[in-house]
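Ticket 4471: requesting a sanity check on a complex prediction with aspartyl-adenosine-5'-monophosphate. Repro inputs:
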Amino acid sequence: MSDDAYDIRKTHFTSDVGPELDGKEVVLAGWVENIRKLGGIKFIILRDKEGQSQITIPKSNSKLFDEVDNLGKEYVIQVRGTVKKIEKAPQGAEIIPKEIKILNTAISPLPLDPSGKVDANLDTQLDNRVLDIRRPEKTAIFIIRHETANAIREFLIKKGFTEINTPKIIASASEGGADLFPISYYEKEAFLSQSAQLYKEQMSSVFEKVFEIAPCYRAELSRTVRHLSEVYAVDVEVAFNDYEDVMNLLEELICHLFKHIKKNCSKELMALNRELAVPKKPFPRYTYTDIVEKLQKEGVGINWGEDISTQAYRKLGELLEGAYFILDWPTAGKPFYILPRKDDPKLCESFDFMYGWLEMASGGTRIHKKDMLIKRLEEQKLEPTSFSFHLKTFDWGMPPHAGWGLGLDRLVMILTGSENIRECVLYPRDRDRLTP
Ligand code: AMO
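Returned C-alpha cells:
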C-alpha cells in the first residue's frame, strides 16, 4: 500500500462493476465505508458517488492483508484489481486487489457515523453536513433536488421561456418591507432581494415568457420546519396571461415533474422508502372564502380577511390531501402588484398552490396600469418614490401579465417526504444557523 498519488484517475465507478467484467482489471476510487474480517478474508466496502463495491483480500496476499489494518472509515483510497464474478457479492462481482493506495486519511472517531448506524440529531447532522450527506438516503434528497431543477428548466424552455438572472442586491422591497435583510453597500444601505418579482415583471415586457431559479432572502423571525432565511424560488412571469393561465401552467409543470422524478429517480426514491403519487389534473380549486368557511366549520378560529395561521394550515392538511389551489384572496392581504378583481375589488386575482398543509407557490394576475399600481402602493403604506425605477417601466408599454413563485426547497420536501425543510438544503440558513 503506498500513498504517492501519481495517477489519481479511475477507470470505473462502482456501478460499472458487474459479472460481465469478470477477469478484467479496473481502477476504482472512493471512500472506505466499512472494513470487515471474516476468518482468513478481509473485506473493504468501497463507496463512490454511484454506490458500493466489495474489495476482497485473501490471506494469501499477505502484504495487502496486513495493510488493510492501516485503513480507517472515510479514508480515500484507490484500488487497482481484478473483477471476479461471484453471486454472493452485492453486484454479483467483487474486486481482488493488486494495489491499494491511500489518497487521504480521515480522523477517528468521526463526528457522526456516515453509515447511519448511529443516529444523530438534526443539529449534529447539519453541523457535519459533508459527512451527513454521504449517507445514501441523504444523497438521494440532493439528487432529487438536482433532477427537480433540471426538469423544471427543461419543461419551461420547451414551452418557449427565457431564463433570466435578476439582482439579489436591491434598493427597495418587492413584497413589502417587513422581512428584508439590510446590508451595508458602500456608503449606502441596500437589501438582499426577497423575490425576483419586480424584475421578472419588467422582463415580461421584452421576452414575454421568463423564468428564474435563484435564491431570495427573508428575515423570518419564526422558527418553523418550513421557513428558511435563504430560499430557492422558481419564478415565472408571462405576458398576455392571467392567473387562470399561469395556474394551468403550474398544474401541468407539477404533474410533469412528479412523473419525471418517479421515472428518473427510482433508486433515490427507494433509498428514501418513498412512494410518489402523481397528482391528477385538474387540481381542486377552492376560493379563500370557501377555505375560511371550511376552517370555521372545523372550529378553527379565523375571521374572513385574516391570514391563515400555521395551526389552520395543519387542519387544512388533514382535510385536503395532495395538490390544490386557494384562489381569490382578500386584496388587502396580498402584495401591491396583484390585480384586484373587477367585479369585487376587495378580492384579487391571486392564488396559492398548496400540497396538504404546505404552501408551495403563490401568484396572480399583476396590475399593468401605472396609476393603479401607485394607488395600491399608497394603500399598502409603501412610498411610490422608492419604486420609481420600477414604475417608470410602466410608461414604456407594459403588457398585461401574470406569474408565480414556487418554493424549490418546499417542493423537494414534498418529493422526498422530508419533515423539515432543512433536510432538503445543503447548507440551510435560518435565524439560528449561519454556518457551516
Ligand atoms: P411568496 O412570498 O409567497 O411569493 O413566495 C413564493 C414561495 O416561496 C416559498 N417561500 C419560502 N420557503 C421557505 N422559507 C421561506 N421563508 C419562504 N418564503 C417563501 C414558498 C412560497 O409559496 N413574488 C411572489 C411570487 C409571485 O407572485 O410570483 C412571492 O415571492 O413556497
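Notes from triage: The longest strand covers residues 25-38. Leaving this open until the requester confirms.
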